[in-house]
Amino acid sequence: MEILILVVIMIVVGLIMGALAGPIWKGKRPLGATADYLISVIVAVGVGLIDWFVIPAMGFSDTMKYLGVAFEPAICALLALWVVRLARRP
Predict the structure, then answer these.
(1) Which domain does 68 fall in, by range?
(2) Angstrom distance (rounded) from CA 36 to CA 18
(3) What's the structural domain count of the chain?
(4) What is the pTM assigned to this prediction?
(5) Torsion of CA 40, 41, 46, 51, to 10 degrees
(6) Using CB atoms within 10 A of its CB, is residue 36 exposed (0-12), middle (13-18) or buried (19+)?
(7) I want to staple 51 with a disulfide (CB 3.0 to 4.6 A). Which of 11, 41, 68, 75 is the partner?
(8) What is the CA radius of gyration of the chain?
(9) How many angstroms separate the most distant Cα atoms in the chain?
(10) pLDDT tens-digit profile of 34-66?
(11) CA distance 49 to 29
């Protein structure tokens, strides 16, 4: 049940980061708004799941797991959108 809640939260985080991408980069969406949302959701869910399983396997506490899941997916989603903008620059 925790995984389902995590995935839903990461989808919401990805959607928020996809929406914030336009104002952050002044509306430059080389692949369109839909692609921004898709990229950010995929990255946020992937990084969130990796953090959920890898951080405890590395021996860190649950507090570190929750901190990683809280911040890293959002940052990685924005980073992925920035890389897409750099790659699509003419």
Answers:
(1) 2-87
(2) 5
(3) 1
(4) 0.88
(5) 80
(6) buried
(7) 68
(8) 14
(9) 45
(10) 999 999 999 999 999 999 999 889 998 888 888
(11) 27
